[in-house]
Request: fold
Amino acid sequence: MAVPKYKTSKARTRRRRSINMAKTAPNLVNCSNCGNKILLHRVCPKCGFYRGKQILEPEDMA
Ligand SMILES: [Zn+2]
Reply:
């Protein structure tokens, strides 16, 4: 089995991880009903709409 000739430095490891293990920003879209920024494929927490239909009661009314 091939064995690495040199120890991978902390800097090299961390540089690789900063690229390959970087968290990506959540996919935010505007709510079709109220325009609020919401996560994709989630019910809007502000107005309770999802795919053009009322799913939940809005928080300030319930
Ligand atoms: Zn909404």
Observations:
- The beta strands are 28-30, 37-39, 49-50, 53-54.
- The two ends are 64 Å apart (CA to CA).
- The chain has a mean pLDDT of 87.
- The longest helix spans residues 10-20.
